[in-house]
Design goal:
It is a single chain. The chain is mostly helical.
Length: 160
């Protein structure tokens, strides 16, 4: 008998006599882990939806002076400001609608890519990190909820 075979046999025989209540770590059930992951993802979506609705879209939609100055500096005026505000508000609401979550995250992500480009080109990169930071959780949501895209297509095909 080789050394490897002998050591495996001794480990196996020791394992068979160990009591069932040994200090072995019991693995967490996949369903509990999945449930916590779903809750965390949902909480992230709610936080992002609140951010986009309150902190980002609202100042644009009420024409707050900080938003009007930024869009005037870009040369987009009120029309651009209201358009971006409406897109952000629609994305915030859609992040909370189960069938639209992935599409909303991708759409807001595209908006953040545009915001990043504007920050670099118009404002010299002053706040360019903000859209990139927001892009990371949006990409996570889009990826995690990607299965809903097929369901959304099925619903649209039935109606069309």
């Amino acid at each position: 008998m080789s050394e490897t075979t002998a050591s495996v046999a001794s480990v196996a025989s020791n394992a068979s006599v160990a009591p069932a209540s040994s200090s072995a770590v019991v693995a967490e059930s996949p369903t509990a882990r999945d449930r916590r992951a779903r809750i965390a993802l949902r909480a992230l979506q709610v936080v992002l939806a609140l951010f986009y609705a309150i902190a980002s879209a609202l100042p644009k939609l009420i024409a707050h002076s900080s938003a009007t100055e930024i869009f005037a500096d870009m040369g987009w005026g009120n029309a651009g400001m209201y358009t971006v505000g409406i897109l952000e508000l629609a994305g915030a609401v859609a992040l909370l609608v189960p069938l639209l979550q992935s599409v909303a995250a991708m759409s807001l992500g595209a908006l953040m890519v545009g915001a990043f480009i504007v920050q670099l080109t118009v404002f010299g990169g002053q706040n360019a990190a903000t859209p990139v930071i927001l892009l990371v959780p949006l990409a996570l949501i889009a990826w995690a909820r990607r299965g809903q895209n097929a369901e959304l297509l099925r619903v649209l095909r039935r109606r069309g």
